[in-house]
Amino acid sequence: MTWQTFNPPVAPSPGTRNKPEIKLLKADFGDGYTQTSPDGLNHIRRTLSLNWECLLPWQKDQIVQFFEDHAGWEPFYYTPSNENQPVKWTCEDWDDTRASDGFKVSAILKQDFSV
């Protein structure tokens, strides 16, 4: 399957947050001893919080429509700012808000490891 590439009409506003979600297996033993190991091959999953501010209606519509078309489960490629390679993501969580200076869209992208 070929995945689409997300190319928003404008770059996200400053303040993009890149936070890893780390999945570990832990076994607690007596006397405070703990054994920890990664849970799976891809145990570190990136989460990217993006915000677009001061959007025109058509810009907001294009971003929101892309996320709606992918319905939260279909992966897509997106290259975060200051990176050279696209990464595969899904987006289950986004919202748009009308503000005094236009529209605002927020989205949380989660790295996708499906094949």
Description:
The chain is mainly β. Helix content is 12%, strand content 47%. It is built from 1 helix and 7 strands. A hairpin with a 5-residue loop joins strand 2 and strand 3. The longest helix is centred in the middle third of the chain and has 14 residues, at 57-70. The model has no long low-confidence stretch (mean pLDDT 95).
Q: Average the pLDDT over all residues and give the rounded result.
A: 95
End-to-end separation in angstroms reads 9 Å
Spatial strand arrangement across the major sheet: 1-4-7-6-5
Radius of gyration: 18 Å
Along the chain, the helix and strand elements come as: EEEEHEEE
Approximate shape: elongated
Strand percentage: over 45%
Number of strands: 7
The total of helices stands at: 1
Fold blueprint:
Layout: E1 17-22, E2 24-28, E3 34-38, E4 44-55, H1 57-70, E5 76-78, E6 87-99, E7 102-111
Antiparallel strand pairs: 1-4, 2-3, 4-7, 5-6, 6-7
Provide key terms for this protein:
mainly beta; 115 residues; 12% helix; single chain; 1 helix; 5-stranded antiparallel β-sheet; 7 strands
Short synopsis of the structure:
The chain is mostly beta strands and 115 residues long. It has one helix at residues 57-70; strands at residues 17-22, 24-28, 34-38, 44-55, 76-78, 87-99, 102-111.
